[in-house]
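Possible regression after last week's pipeline update?

I re-ran a chain I had predicted before the update to compare outputs. Posting the input and the new output here so someone can diff against the archived version. Not blocking, just want to make sure nothing changed silently.
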Amino acid sequence: MGAHLDAASGVALHPIAREAMLAAYDDGWADPDRLYGSARRARVLLDAARSAVAEVIGARPDEVSFAANGTQALHAAVLGTVAGNRGSAAHLVHSTVEHSAVLHAAQAHAASGGAVSAVGVDALARVDVEAFAAAVAAAAGPAVAALQAANHEVGTRQPLDAAAAAMPGVPLVVDATQTLAHDAVPGPWSVLAADARTWGGPTVGVLAVRTGTRWRSPYPADDREAGRIPGVPNLPAIVGAAAALRAVEVGRDVEAVRCAQLVDRIRAEVQRTVPDVEVLGDPVDRLPHLVTFSCLYVDGEALLGALDRRGFAVSSGSSCTSSTLEPSHVLVAMGALTSGNIRVSLHHGVGSADVDEFLTVLPGAVAEVRARLGADGL
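New output (post-update):
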């Protein structure tokens, strides 16, 4: 049997998204900025999708723009806020466990002469509000803060409300790529980014900029998407993303409870049945659909392969890759074990039987890898 347990990387296209996209390919193929009939029909579809997303995140439609993907949305969120706050004179403050897209944007800002401060986290991957606010207060220039709604690898929610209250007037960039459609929409944000792939939409990013926020596009001038994202928008994909978001948002609270119960079972059973394992992240104040654990004496990539052969698709945030040869920056920042790391993230298509089967095959997969590495007797 097996199951896809990597919703954090993306899930299969939602049936409603598929239907909406097929209809949009027929009615929304024209350039929505033109004035002829087919273009006006495309504009109606685009406006409706924008309004649907805005309603879910608690924004005005004119505050929402669509990007090519979640990474582009995060880059634009960070670099646009920096650009709107005196560019290279701005001081960017972020946590050490932000998504790699945020860290790469921070590196680009530093390369252009800007100041960047990274604030550490505790063993649960949660940033200290006082330390974060102190770094903002000590900024050499106009401060820009970037803080995720919840961590993408271990699920720990960040104290956004307290952080925003501790730094009034400072623009706050919030990464909601793992939160939107799975958990309550983050409250305080100046700029927000999300990724439709995580809720059953196609590859589309969402960028939202609150009215009054100092933000300027980091790209060459273009009048598309309120001047925020250049190029003609992928209208069928945008329509599909909005349709999927609206569909999953209707049952989000019920689904969150269901997934949280399954994650609680995984957290408990992994510690009971697998020797030398550490379950990571906050056990309570966390995303409802995601759990990560690390196994001692196990190579993460080898364990991924063993589980894949048993039909289960999971991800590993700890394994070195051929391109970077570096372990997960999140796990390093937490001081956690960086080998044998497995992230399981659930979606509406995963049932109790799938979790039971995963928990049944996991101990054998770990034992197989340990035996292959000569660590089974340790």
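Follow-up from reviewer: compared with the archived run. The longest strand covers residues 290-295. Marking as no regression found.
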